[in-house]
Design goal:
The complex is a heterodimer of chains A (793) and B (69). Helix content of chain A is 61%, strand content 8%. Chain A is an alpha+beta fold and 793 residues long. Chain A folds into three domains: 103 residues, 2-Layer Sandwich (Alpha-Beta Plaits), CATH 3.30.70.120; 138 residues, 2-Layer Sandwich (Alpha-Beta Plaits), CATH 3.30.70; 340 residues, no CATH class. Chain A: It comes from Starmerella bacillaris (Yeast).
Chain lengths: 793, 69
Amino acid sequence: MRDEAIFRSAQMSLAQMYVSYEVSREIVRALGDLGVVHFRDLNASVSDFQRAFVEPIKSVNNSLRQTRLVKSYMQTNGVEMAPVWSGEQVANIETLPAKLDALEDQLTNLVDSELQLKSSQLQLIERRYTLQFAAKLLGQHHAVSDTVLGVVNRQELAALQRICWRALRGNLVFMSENIDQQVWDSSQRKLVDKSVFVVVTHGSQLLQRAESIARAMDAHVYEIQNSDVSHELQDLNTRLSEVNEVLEQTHRTLISQLQDVSESIGAWDLALQKERGVYETLNKFVYDENRKLLIAEGWIPTDELINTQNCLRSVSEAFQVESPTVMTLLQTTKQPPTYHRTNKVTQAFQNMVDVYAVASYQEVNPGLPTVVTFPFMFAVMFGDIGHGFLMFLAALLVVLNERKLARYQGGDVFDMFYTGRYVILLMGLFSMFTGFMYNDLFSKSMTLFKSGWVWPHHESGESVTAVSTNNVYIFGIDYMWHGAENNLRFLNSYKMKLSVILGYVHMLYSYFFSLVNDLHFKNYAAVLTNFVPGLIFFLSIFGYLSICIIYKWTVDWAERGAQPPSLMNMLINMFLAPGKIDEPLYKGQKQVQLFLLFAALASVPVLLFAKPLYMRRQAQKQHHQNQNQYQALPTVQPQSSRDNAVSDRLVNDALQNLGSDSSAEEHEESFGDIMIEQAIETIEFCLNSVSHTASYLRLWALSLAHSQLSQVLWDMTLKLSFGASGTVGVIMVVVMFAVWMSLTVAILTVMEGTSAMLHALRLHWVESMSKFYIGEGYAFEPFSFASLSAAAA
Amino acid sequence: MSGWTVVFGLLLTVVASLLAWQFAPKRDNTVWRSSLVLTLVMCYLMWAITYLAQLHPLEAPTRSDLRAE
């Protein structure tokens, strides 16, 4: 069974493959379809141009350029591309370049001649209009020789007239007529409105000036011989119809060619892209030219080894090669890549973690608990049933239509929403739960359960204090607090304590992952030197505070007849004036606090010195052992035959060079370095335990701000409209509801939601992940065609 | 209604967590287990804190905008 690989990254094996040259492409293609091998670049020191398969890549790139060209022709001529079936095989991929070359020639010729024909058609059309215009206007007079006739874009017409007027100092007659059909413009490559114009003036100098102005404004100037206009018109029309016919024929040929190729161009494109991937992968292999052998190294998830082996065998059998592809596993000290198997729900959460840093190989993956803790922390800041429900609905809409929307191009914001749809769905759900806890529904409260308070008998406008019924509101905050004058005093105290406890629990939970990591990596020394003293420090200050908060709640202070102590002062006194108890919380408090203070202070030197001292002892032991041992001689390769010796050495050199690229030998650190590092870590840990706990108070601040803002919005919009009555009241309710609803969505849900989300993200990246996350890995990037096929489909 | 409600809630959460652990779907087993148990625990935690905060109130709600009764 396959490992789920979400709590830890999947176990990896480094495999070496000997592939004979004849089947190398088929092998790599099959592995690309399988998509489980992360090939190591064995030629990292060789530049891209010196690798073995540069020429094939050039040729494939050229073919890809040709397919892009064909696609662009199809787009401009409105020919639809047939959808690509991702499993489609292209037979005879070797003949593709020749096919594409011929196709490119044909199509380019057709497109070029179409363009040429279009421009000659344009000239003829424009000339005909000019002639007609000239015949109409100037037919009566015989002064055609003193004119400049032409066609200009209609936008430029007014400017042309004005400039001519100024340049010729009013010494002219300017006339124009709109052409009633749109005319092709070869510089803009589209149909535009144009006009015929005539400038009548006298003197060759002025005429010349008018003509050059017209040409400068992209007008086409046509010479009209003052001979038989009607004859020339006839002539023009015949030529035009000829050109039209040829043009139409060319266009038809082009379209039919494009339609022919539209069936297969998508599949060709996909096959070529795969081909490029294959050659790029082959370039990572060591190529032994004499033996026609390729040597590859790659990381494979251990539970996929059998699949890979089967794949290799089936290809070898299908092509019946003499030397089968051999795969051997290598023992290595190199760090394997990190591979978490995610699904569509966990993917978004994993991305959130990976953006911060990719997990080290096999360490606890923070992406797993984040699935719940992230939306929950968000919800604590965003608690409102109504706003949570809106968010839930929006995400649900996308989730239910995810297949349809997967291809929808809606811009960056939509893409972000789409990838995070399950995150937002969960955020909405948890916000509804916390909304129940805060008893907030669009800032209104619900009276679902029996309240713990009753109002005593009172007069109107009198200040009344509720009387306890000894009942506790069972689920969430009592609705009697809603609208009370001292509502905020109560909620502040509750939410502050809530954030401290939740924050502490979250950090403690994260801290235990460091224990899980240490145990998994058999780093038992770190458990004793780092984890345990850190835990004692963390428990004896903020653990104690959290327990005191809960204990204080369980005591009935009125019954005890004592003053409830201030926990804040208690914690401050615990450090500044040890042993001094102003208001006792419980018996024996003094001894307990002195003990805890001692434990916290005592754990600091342990944190500071234990690890460096332990490491120094280990180093000394190692040193002793090394001195007592002989150094191993480098193993000598038995040289089997002379012919192979040279190439063997070549290959071995290459492999060894590359083996040493990630420094296998541990850099020996001096005791001083370790000490300084540990001192920094200790100080950081102690300070962070304070600052991170304080940082969780943002839960309190944001949730308070959110509930206050929604309260204000209600009071300023919808509540106002309830005062008016009659028609005005009806209109006001409708208008105010629109205002209230749109602001609720825009400000309270989208804006506040974004801000709460960023805060929740920070709580995970900084406060939680700093407790255990190493994050020095690199992602597993298997050579796979899956993404190519998905993009093409 | 007393502090024991919170303990009872804890027991209920533990039982529900055990059931969730046992009967989580076999596909993506770890994800289901982790998410269900974490959800139960966090929801319990928040409920318990909210309940405890109102168990022995140090303050009572006051208003002066009520109609005569």
